[in-house]
Amino acid sequence: MKASEFVEGLKKIKIDAGPLKKRGLSDQFIEDFKRAYYAPPTGSNCVSPHPVVELVENYDCSSLEIGMVTFDEKIEETEDYLFFGKADEHDLAIDITTGAVVMVESGFDDILFNCAQNDARFLAAILNIGVFLLRRVFEAGLSENDELNIQMAEEFGDIAGGEKYYDFYKMMLGV
């Protein structure tokens, strides 16, 4: 998935404020919630073989938050990684050698989770998990259905590249 396709996919996600207001959530909370699924263009025209790099460089990701995944304001490159975001307070990065997306313990080089075969697959999986997480907000009992959440985590893992990535998506769904 390209960065532009990811952003277009986000635009197609509609968040109905009505049910959120009925739960007593403030207008500010609802606006922040909607903004978490929005990444407007910055006017930059970075071209990269990595869709995540294009996303971070060409779109304002400062409010973008899908589950526990957030994106940095800029890419940080080291000898081994292109750091682009966070998940559960740890760093998300592209392994420069393999192209895989990994979750690295903040401040260290220890890989905590393999997230995707590459960053294009990562964006596709994250977009899909974002849609499912919204369903969990609006559909009663969905969050507590461990069997379904495990099945969905495995589907997102398959989008990301296969069984090797299941644990990351299970962690994202809390199962």
From TrEMBL:
This is Uncharacterized protein.
